[in-house]
């Protein structure tokens, strides 16, 4: 039946001939010149492909600016954040239980360390208050590096950690710091009035929240800290801060507080989807 069935030796011989055929001088079924042409083709093909890729990359990189993001959210409403942060923006502690508030004190110590007078004096300059600190580039000529204004922690007075190193946590009059996230080029107000931060209790909580004190006075973020030119141009920039101190909080109650920025160039609509745009809410509870 299978009379022309190849023997094992035949198969091996056929393979050998396929790999190297001494008669036709073919290697794997192709002659040297055929292989040469194929290699040449792929060489040219991949060189062109690589060239096109490099060119595209080069053109793209040309359009990027080292100092400013090419794409920035149109939204000029900076986010806000509190310090200490606590879990899920909740600050809960017991006055008598030192360990329960020690983490907050430590967190504030760490956060405020770059605002020490010695550090500020070394890295930043004293600026004229109540006006923008403008350092524009003139055309293509970069006005870099740009200087930044000093913000000494002593400006936070009773919340600076200098007068009271427990930031009021021990006495049930805690301080909370509020910072505005950096937005490159933000000029928060037109009429020369510095933006300021106000905090209020959410519904029903005003009575139990008690009075607040703001540092610096009126909760202002001085105009001299604006505009911000970006991390690369303004390396030593210190974000201005506002501290609020709860003077007469009702103990053993949850208090929901919302702080917001007020500035004529920052319009907060009630329907704002982002709950951190120009405002921040947190829960505070002091147990005793
Ligand atoms: C910050 O502190 C330094 C050192 O004490 C002082 O020279 C400087 O005037 C202070 N700056 C501001 C803006 O208060
Ligand atoms: C930034 O701070 C360093 C010291 O840490 C200082 O040498 C440098 O001059 C500062 N840069 C600017 C632009 O102020
Ligand atoms: C705080 O605001 C009040 C009224 O708006 C103003 O009279 C006072 O001068 C402000 N204080 C500071 C230190 O800016
Ligand atoms: C503190 O708040 C309580 C009510 O929660 C009030 O009766 C008291 O007068 C307040 N004290 C001060 C100094 O405002």
From TrEMBL:
Gene3D superfamilies: 1.20.5.170, Na, k-atpase alpha subunit (2.60.40.1660)
UniProt xrefs under InterPro entries: Na/K_ATPase_sub_beta, Na/K_ATPase_sub_beta_sf
Keywords assigned: Cell membrane, Disulfide bond, Glycoprotein, Ion transport, Membrane, Potassium, Potassium transport, Signal-anchor, Sodium, Sodium transport, Sodium/potassium transport, Transmembrane, Transmembrane helix, Transport
A cellular-component GO term for this protein: sodium:potassium-exchanging ATPase complex
Pfam families according to UniProt: Na_K-ATPase
A biological process from GO: potassium ion import across plasma membrane
GO MF: ATPase activator activity
Function statement: This is the non-catalytic component of the active enzyme, which catalyzes the hydrolysis of ATP coupled with the exchange of Na(+) and K(+) ions across the plasma membrane.
Stated name of the protein: Sodium/potassium-transporting ATPase subunit beta
Organism from which the protein derives: Conger conger
């Amino acid at each position: 039946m299978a009379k022309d069935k190849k023997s094992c030796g035949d198969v091996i011989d056929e393979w050998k001939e396929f790999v190297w055929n001494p008669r036709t001088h073919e290697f794997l079924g192709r002659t040297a010149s055929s292989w040469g042409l194929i290699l040449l083709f792929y060489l040219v093909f991949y060189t062109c492909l690589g060239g096109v890729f490099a060119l595209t990359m080069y053109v793209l990189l040309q359009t990027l600016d080292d100092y400013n993001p090419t794409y920035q959210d149109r939204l000029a409403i900076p986010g806000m954040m509190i310090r200490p942060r606590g879990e899920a923006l909740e600050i809960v502690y017991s006055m008598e239980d030192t360990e329960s508030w020690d983490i907050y004190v430590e967190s504030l110590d760490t956060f405020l360390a770059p605002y020490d007078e010695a550090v500020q004096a070394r890295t930043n300059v004293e600026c004229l208050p109540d006006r923008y600190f403008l350092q524009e580039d003139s055309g293509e000529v970069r006005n870099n590096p740009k200087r930044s204004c000093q913000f000494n922690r002593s400006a936070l007075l009773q919340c600076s950690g200098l007068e009271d190193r427990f930031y009021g946590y021990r006495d049930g009059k805690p301080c909370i710091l509020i910072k505005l996230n950096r937005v490159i080029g933000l000029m928060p107000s037109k009429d020369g009035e510095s933006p300021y931060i106000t905090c209020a209790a959410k519904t029903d909580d005003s009575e139990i929240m008690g009075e607040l004190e703001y540092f610096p006075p009126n909760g202002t973020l001085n105009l001299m800290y604006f505009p911000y030119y970006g991390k690369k141009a303004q390396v030593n920039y210190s974000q201005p801060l506002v501290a609020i101190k709860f003077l007469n909080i009702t103990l053993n109650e949850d208090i929901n507080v919302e702080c917001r920025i007020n500035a004529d160039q920052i319009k907060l609509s009630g329907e704002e989807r982002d709950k951190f745009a120009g405002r921040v809410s947190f829960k505070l509870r002091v147990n005793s």
